[in-house]
């Protein structure tokens, strides 16, 4: 019981610190606080500028004509800017700051310092920005996230298309450095990628903005622009983009894969253990060894397995855990639902089961609407971003209903969506509202996204389902475990 109480206190404290405590109110300004706020604005602008597709995703359109650079020069430019911002806040007299500003100072200092420490490991994971999880080369999400209002927006769009061959060349250059330094990925990290490259066909349709014709009509762009835009896209794909992808595919198959690391595990790399522990520090926010993480994992596995067996006994099931998991696949009432029913069920869980009871434990409930949308690909069963709960409806007959509640609690309320909504409702620095996901290949050379805080809170949200008496049967509770 004490461990649960401590966990609740820690989770709540982290939530308030990272979200901005509404009780504190806005800090009074002075010279040192002004320096701090200027530095926060600088890092915010820096993040948008250096991650232009990410900026587009968050509806900041100043960099719609650019793609993120993977050149070594870009790495050094980012290092210099972050180092300069860090030096600027070191001149601040922290004693002059309000209590909230002191927390903001510590947060920014740690944010910048964590990133800069990662440059010790620039010649490791950052040299291979591609694997079966990180697919920079295959994603063009900016196509449908770009704002199209006038002809300048299309000019920016074409400039971004022109940047694709340059970016592919930069990726190849980085990965050649990985080969030269014997820092390549293990084959297990990239073998599935080769299959996707085989299936991936570069077609002009991939680069047509959704509902392009409607966009042109609504914004009163001349009709002949429709044909001109289509021709431009087709020419750029045929003459620039497709040849670059073909060259990249050849490089992966003929150069990178033959040089893939023969031994699995980072311990096979020079200073691999130190590198691994630097990655752990990036995720945890403090020094911890692989052995400590392993021991914690073993302890938690035993604790959870014990609770699972208690549920099995409650259901009068006689067998081991493996047999019970197989048993769960053979209960017809939990399966055979359609795509539309999956989405409807998730909506009902949010609106009818979860939202009405949130007030039982939260005094301030920022109930921003969350939309449920179906996706059909190899994505996880559920994910969240920008007020959208994306649920995988591929092979709906294999989706079990007893998994839905824990997943909903994790991704929406009181999990990720609630967490983001709470932050949006409070006066926190803009850069902390941005969740720069991905780039896990580069860790620890990445701006921290505090996954331990984000995922830790979402996991805690699943536990809150128990406190709120939301788990209606042992099967839902088992899935939570």
Descriptive notes:
- Keywords: Signal.
- Residues 1-25 form the signal peptide.
- This is DUF885 domain-containing protein.
- With 481 residues, the chain is mainly alpha-helical.
- It is 56% helix and 3% strand.
- It has helices at 2-19, 31-50, 52-57, 72-89, 99-117, 142-145, 151-180, 187-199, 212-218, 224-256, 272-284, 290-314, 321-328, 339-354, 404-411, 416-424, 451-467, 474-480, and strands spanning 371-375, 382-385, 388-392.
- Strands 1-3-2 form a three-stranded mixed sheet, with helices on one face.
- A hairpin with a 2-residue loop joins strand 2 (382-385) and strand 3.
- The longest helix has 33 residues, at 224-256.
- The protein is globular, with a radius of gyration of 25 Å.
Tag the structure with descriptive keywords.
single chain, 481 residues, mainly alpha, globular, disordered N terminus, DUF885 domain-containing protein
Describe this structure in a few short sentences.
By secondary structure, the chain is mostly helical. It is built from 18 helices and three strands. Strands 1-3-2 form a three-stranded mixed sheet, with helices on one face.
Strand content: under 5%
Strands across the major sheet, in which order?
A: 1-3-2
Q: Could you give the count of β-strands?
A: 3
Briefly note the structural class of the backbone: mainly alpha
Largest sheet: 3 strands, mixed
Order of helices and strands: HHHHHHHHHHHHHHEEEHHHH
Mean pLDDT metric: 86
Principal-axis shape equals globular
Radius of gyration: 25 Å
Query: Given the structure, what is the number of helices?
Result: 18
Could you give the distance between the termini?
Answer: 17 Å
- Which parts are unreliable, with pLDDT below 50 for 5 consecutive residues or more? 1-10, 22-28
The portion of residues assigned to helices is 55-70%
């Amino acid at each position: 019981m004490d461990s649960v109480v401590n966990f609740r206190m820690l989770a709540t404290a982290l939530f308030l610190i990272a979200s901005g405590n509404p009780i504190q109110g806005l800090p009074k300004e002075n010279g040192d606080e002004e320096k701090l706020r200027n530095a926060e604005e600088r890092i915010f602008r820096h993040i948008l500028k250096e991650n232009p597709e990410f900026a587009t995703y968050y509806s900041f359109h100043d960099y719609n004509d650019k793609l993120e650079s993977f050149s070594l020069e870009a790495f050094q430019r980012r290092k210099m800017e972050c180092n300069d911002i860090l030096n600027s806040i070191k001149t601040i007299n922290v004693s002059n700051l309000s209590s909230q500003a002191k927390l903001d100072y510590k947060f920014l200092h740690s944010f910048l310092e964590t990133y800069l420490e990662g440059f010790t490991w620039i010649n490791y994971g950052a040299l291979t920005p591609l694997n079966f999880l990180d697919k920079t080369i295959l994603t063009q999400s900016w196509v449908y996230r770009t704002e199209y209002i006038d002809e300048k927006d299309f000019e920016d769009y074409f400039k971004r298309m022109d940047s694709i061959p340059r970016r592919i060349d930069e990726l190849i250059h980085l990965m050649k450095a990985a080969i030269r330094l014997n820092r390549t990925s293990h084959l297990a990290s990239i073998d599935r990628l080769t299959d996707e490259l085989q299936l991936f066909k570069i077609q002009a349709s991939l680069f047509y903005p959704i509902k392009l014709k409607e966009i042109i009509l609504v914004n009163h762009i001349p009709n002949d622009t429709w044909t001109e835009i289509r021709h431009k896209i087709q020419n750029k794909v045929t003459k620039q983009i497709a040849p670059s992808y073909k060259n990249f595919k050849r490089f992966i198959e003929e150069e990178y894969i033959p040089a893939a690391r023969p031994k699995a595990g980072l311990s096979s790399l020079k200073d691999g253990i130190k590198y691994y522990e630097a990655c752990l520090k990036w995720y945890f926010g403090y020094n911890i060894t692989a052995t400590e993480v392993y021991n914690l994992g073993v302890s938690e596995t035993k604790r959870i397995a014990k609770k699972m067996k208690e549920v099995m006994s409650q259901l009068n099931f006689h067998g081991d855990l493996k047999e019970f998991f197989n048993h769960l696949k053979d209960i017809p009432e939990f399966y055979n639902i359609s795509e539309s029913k999956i989405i409807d069920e998730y909506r009902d869980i949010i609106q009818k089961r979860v939202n009405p009871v949130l007030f039982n434990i939260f005094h301030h409930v920022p109930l921003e609407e969350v939309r449920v949308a179906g996706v059909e690909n190899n994505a996880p069963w559920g994910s969240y971003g920008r007020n959208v709960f994306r649920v995988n409806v591929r092979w709906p007959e294999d989706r079990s209903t007893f998994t839905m509640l824990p997943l909903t609690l994790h991704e929406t309320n009181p999990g990720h969506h609630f967490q983001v909504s709470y932050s949006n409702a409070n006066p926190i620095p803009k850069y902390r509202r941005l969740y720069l996901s991905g780039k896990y290949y580069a860790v620890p050379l990445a701006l921290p996204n505090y996954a331990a805080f984000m995922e830790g809170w979402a996991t805690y949200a699943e536990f809150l389902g128990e406190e709120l008496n939301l788990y209606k049967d042992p099967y839902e509770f088992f899935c939570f475990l």
